[in-house]
Every structure is written in structure tokens, then in C-alpha cells.
């Protein structure tokens, strides 16, 4: 599943479509009135967490790439697109294997930008308040909670917990205050590193925990499992990642 930094990259790559008018729209989405999109200019492209948002005069389209979604700019895949937006000069923006949903209401009514770890409006104080209000939530679940850390996915989760030496099964209420603050800070810091490394085509080279077999600090096998309420894969070291609350 593409994480927040990848959606920001998509937004930046597609920036040239802002101000352009949709000449034709098609696809196999069952939720979109394609005819209504034609003739509408793209007022803005936005990202919130893992959501890519196309702002039009009469509506906003929310694209979620889910687990295996993808996009192409000025090219096509062999499979049919879920949504294809064409422009008069022949350029096009295509989305595949994703969720497309028209949103009602303004963007500021739907989204709290303070929760997006990559947004200028990101509020670490708000994230701390939300964490403290859910002391029983496990660290591995907290980092994946999009209401707290919009944009953080499984890669960032595993890497942040390893960097901070926090066991994924630690309840956030058991974390010392400096660790809790560090968790909030590193969720954002690592997201920007993720973006930097992905743009340089070297993201996997920097992984220390995610999908790795041996702890680079302790030189012992990593533990792995589908942990917490989210049941997402965790890779962690039982020796150097402390399990708080025991």
C-alpha cells in the first residue's frame, strides 16, 4: 500500500494538470459520473495521508490506491484504468486498481490537515493529545491510526519503532514521556526521509527492520508477526526494542 510520502510524490509529479480542463473522462469505476467531469477544470491537487484529492469546481475526487493501486501520467498499462482523465493536447492521467470516490463538502470540512504527517499544518501537539487519550493502544496500531498519523504505513511503522528501540506490542500509555514525544517526531521525520530516498530510487537500501531477517544492532534474527488490532506485518528485535508496560 503506497504510504503518504508516495502520494505527495504523485501530487508533485501531476502538478502540471492544475488549471487544465478535463476534455474526456472514462474508466471502470462504478462510483463516478464520467460525463459530469468533462469540461471541469482541475482547481487543485492535494494529498491527505494516503488519499490523493482532485479538486474540481463541482466536486472533489478522492483516490485511494489501496494495496496494489498505481497511476500513470501520459502512458497506459495493459489493464483498464479505474479512472482516466484526458486533456485536449492528448495528455492523460490514469489510475489503476484503486478506489475512486466523489466527496461531498469542502476539503476543509472533510479533512483535518493537522493530522497529516507531511502537511505544513501538521500538529505534533494534537498527535500527543490523541495518543494520551488512548493509553491502551499498542504502538504498532497507534502509528497506523490515520486519525493520528495520516500517511504513516507499515514500512514507516516498522522503521520508526526500530529506530526508537520500542517494541511494537508496547501500549502507548506505558511509554515514558520522552519516548512518546520522540514517536511523534520521528513519524514525521522518517516520512520525509522516505520521500527523499524514494525519489533517489534507494528506499529499500535504507530499511533497517522492514522485511529484514537480522537485527543490524544485535546481529540476531528478527522476530516477525501480524501484530495488534491491525494485524499488519511487524519486524522487530526482542533484544534491543524494549517492551514497555510489562
Throw out a few tags for this protein.
246 residues, alpha+beta, N-terminal domain of MutM-like DNA repair proteins, Helicase, Ruva Protein, domain 3, 2 domains, 4-stranded antiparallel beta sheet, 7 helices
Topology overview:
Blueprint: H1 4-13, E1 24-26, H2 34-37, E2 44-48, E3 51-55, E4 60-64, E5 70-73, E6 83-86, E7 92-96, E8 99-103, H3 107-110, H4 124-132, H5 139-142, H6 154-163, H7 177-199, E9 223-227, E10 232-236
Antiparallel strand pairs: 1-6, 2-3, 3-4, 4-8, 5-7, 6-7, 9-10
Helix pairs in contact: 1-7, 4-7, 6-7
Describe the overall structure.
The protein has 246 residues and is an alpha+beta fold. The chain has two domains: 4-110, N-terminal domain of MutM-like DNA repair proteins (Alpha-Beta Barrel), CATH 3.20.190; 114-236, Helicase, Ruva Protein, domain 3 (Orthogonal Bundle), CATH 1.10.8. Helix content is 26%, strand content 19%. The protein contains seven helices and ten strands. The strands form three sheets. It has a four-stranded antiparallel sheet. A four-stranded antiparallel sheet has the order 2-3-4-8, covered by helices on one side. α1 runs parallel beside α7. The radius of gyration is 20 Å and the shape is elongated. The model has no long low-confidence stretch (mean pLDDT 96).
Based on secondary structure, the structural category is alpha+beta
Classify the helix fraction into a percent range.
25-40%
User: What's the end-to-end separation, in Å?
Assistant: 32 Å
Extended strand count:
10
Q: Report the principal-axis shape.
A: elongated
And the CATH topology of the largest domain? Helicase, Ruva Protein, domain 3
So how many helices?
A: 7
Based on the structure given, which CATH architecture of the largest domain is correct?
Orthogonal Bundle
* Total count of domains: 2
- Low-pLDDT sequence parts: none
Amino acid at each position: 500500500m503506497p504510504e503518504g510520502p508516495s502520494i505527495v510524490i504523485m501530487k508533485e509529479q501531476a502538478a502540471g494538470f492544475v488549471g487544465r480542463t478535463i476534455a474526456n473522462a472514462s474508466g471502470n469505476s462504478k462510483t463516478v459520473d464520467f460525463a459530469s467531469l468533462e469540461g471541469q477544470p482541475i482547481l487543485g491537487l492535494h494529498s491527505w495521508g494516503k488519499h490523493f484529492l482532485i479538486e474540481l469546481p463541482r466536486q472533489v475526487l478522492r483516490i485511494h490506491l489501496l494495496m496494489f493501486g498505481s497511476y500513470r501520467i501520459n502512458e497506459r498499462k495493459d489493464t483498464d484504468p479505474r479512472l482516466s482523465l484526458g486533456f485536449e493536447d492528448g495528455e492523460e492521467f490514469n489510475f489503476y486498481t484503486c478506489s475512486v470516490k466523489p466527496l461531498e463538502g469542502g476539503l476543509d470540512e472533510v479533512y483535518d490537515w493537522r493530522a497529516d504527517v507531511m502537511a505544513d499544518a501538521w500538529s505534533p501537539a494534537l498527535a500527543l493529545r490523541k495518543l494520551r487519550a488512548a493509553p491502551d493502544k499498542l504502538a504498532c496500531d497507534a502509528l497506523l491510526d490515520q486519525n493520528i498519523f495520516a500517511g504513516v504505513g507499515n514500512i514507516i511503522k516498522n522503521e520508526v519503532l526500530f529506530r526508537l528501540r520500542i517494541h511494537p506490542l508496547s501500549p502507548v500509555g506505558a511509554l515514558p514521556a520522552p519516548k512518546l514525544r520522540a514517536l511523534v517526531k520521528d513519524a514525521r521525520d522518517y516520512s520525509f526521509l522516505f520521500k527523499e530516498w524514494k525519489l533517489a530510487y534507494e528506499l529499500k537500501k535504507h530499511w533497517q527492520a522492514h522485511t529484514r531477517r537480522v537485527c543490524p544492532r544485535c546481529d540476531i534474527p528478527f522476530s516477525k508477526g501480524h501484530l495488534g488490532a491491525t494485524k499488519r506485518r511487524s519486524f522487530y528485535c526482542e533484544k534491543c526494542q524494549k517492551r514497555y508496560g510489562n
